[in-house]
Amino acid sequence: MSKNFLLGIDIGTSACKIAVFDRNGQVMASATGDYPVYYPQEGWTQQNPEEWWDAVCGAIQKCLSTGNIDPEQIAGVGIDGQSWSAIAIDNQGRVLTDTPIWMDTRAQEICNRLNEEIGTEKIFLLAGNSLQPSYTTAKILWYKENMPEIYGKIYKILQSNSFIAYRLTGAVTQDLSQGYGLHCFDMRTGTWDKKMCDRLGIPMEFLPDIVPCDQVVGTVTEEAAARCGLTAGTPVVAGGLDAACGTLGAGVIHPGETQEQGGQAGGMSICIDTYKADPSLILGFHVVPGQWLLQGGTTGGGGVMRWFEKEFADYERIKSKETGVSSLNQLNEIAQKIPAGSEGVVFLPYMSGERSPIWNPYAKGVFYGLDFAKSKGHMVRACMEGVAFSLRHNLEVAEAAGAEVKVLRAMGGSANSLLWTQIKADVTGKKVVVPASDTATTLGAAILAGVGVGVYKDYEEAVSLTVRETRSHEPNPLNKETYDKTYRTYRELYESLKHMMVRQ
């Protein structure tokens, strides 16, 4: 039997996604597995990695079964995952505690102290990123100061994709693209820096060996095969950051090409082949060799609409049962009736603090401009526009740093909304191209596996065979003046309120 399929695993914030692709990027089968996010205290956002593994195993089994896929047909497995985990395992591979995830801001005081002691410039010069509580660095040190009994048992610190790779193969690794989560990682060379490890107080022994994202790190063990349904001996590559794999799956492999993301979180990733860092942005290695990604990562994305739907769409959910039209599509329809600029309603999408470019863990979501003439439709459209404004803000900072962007390639759930995608084109003034948005991230993971096991000779061939454009959106010049004015209000609104967005 020919091994002509590739399996991609995506460890997202609210669920894992599994997809099996043929060599041409066609989805042969897919499945999802849910798991909870825990919020034990204000500023704390964490997950149980064992629940990821349980969900992955169940979703793989479901995917193979519903798609009638023979696991013998799978040539390789690629894994992508959310950023900035700090999965502490002991020398038996046991998870010692829930991991804080990318939204967690509990370690702000630790960051403040280290930035003062070591110096923000010294940290940034090496790591290419400012030290913020969202990153892995601060979370490790939080364990040290607040969970000494756990800290004393740590053997290794893993990222989300490397944890799943470990469960599948038994190999303990650190892929290149996720290295940016640690500020003892040299962003120019892609290596650990012992001196900065010592300055930060992070033992080098905690850090796995760094490997290329497309490197085969092992094969599926007998134990893992029994749990998930894959064939023992199937090759598994290291994988990488979800945003980087999504960037690959959207076809972004050349300098200047840019991915726009609208999943749970939002943001953009600009492919560059020369080192460009800005303290307001995020710099990491691409999963494609020889490239970096200059990123703007925000908390506002598809999660904004999921929150709004959960809290304010009781009527739409009832109507959905009658009509079959989803509540989110109904919200989209009422937003479409509202003119550009939402007639003065402006939304700050800082629903879990904010990352780049303002880096304020205490930032809050805000609706401004409401009055008795405004409707739910105004609020929905303002949510969409607010996320688009945060994207524009990041793009402007990136362009000031020397990374010019002409076209955005969209991915994530928000790309399914024609209205929201058009709003992003109008607000940013950039053409937006939409590949197969629902599968970009898992496709990127699968491409890594395909290159790693030789299904593709290189990334050029992989992208040419697998990435297809479904539609594009040109900026509407009629909306430029309105959006330029509303964007200024958006920026001024935060500047006027930020003195109140502090730790209480």
Task: Describe the fold and architecture.
- The chain has 504 residues and is of the alpha+beta class.
- It has a domain at 5-238: 2-Layer Sandwich (Nucleotidyltransferase, domain 5).
- The protein is built from 16 helices and 24 strands.
- The chain has a seven-stranded mixed β-sheet, with helices on both faces. Strands 3-2-1-5-15 form a five-stranded mixed β-sheet.
- α8 packs across α14 (440-453) and α10 packs across α11 (327-336).
- The longest helix is centred in the C-terminal third of the chain and has 25 residues, at 376-400.
- The radius of gyration is 22 Å and the shape is globular.
- The N and C termini lie far apart (62 Å).
Q: How would you summarize what this structure contains?
A:
The chain is of the alpha+beta class and 504 residues long. The chain has helices at 49-66, 108-127, 136-146, 148-151, 160-169, 194-200, 222-228, 242-249, 302-312, 314-323, 327-336, 376-400, 418-428, 440-453, 459-466, 480-497, and strands at residues 5-11, 15-22, 27-34, 46-47, 74-81, 87-89, 99-100, 156-158, 174-175, 185-186, 191-192, 210-211, 216-219, 235-237, 240-241, 258-262, 266-272, 282-285, 292-298, 346-348, 366-368, 407-411, 431-435, 469-473. The protein is 38% helix and 20% strand.
Number of DSSP-assigned strands:
24
* Mass-distribution shape: globular
Determine Rg (CA atoms, Å).
Answer: 22 Å
Strand adjacency order, main sheet: 18-19-17-16-22-23-24
Mind summarizing the main beta sheet?
7 strands, mixed
CATH class of the domain at 5-238: Alpha Beta
Please identify the structural class as seen in this structure: alpha+beta
Oligomer state equals: single chain
Share in β-strands: 15-25%
Determine the mean pLDDT: 96
How helical, in percent, are the residues? 25-40%
Total number of helices: 16
Q: Do you know the CATH architecture of the domain at 5-238?
A: 2-Layer Sandwich
What distance lies between the first and last C-alpha atoms, to the nearest angstrom? 62 Å
Question: Unreliable stretches, pLDDT < 50, 5 or more residues?
Answer: none
What is the fold named in CATH at topology level of the domain at 5-238?
Nucleotidyltransferase, domain 5
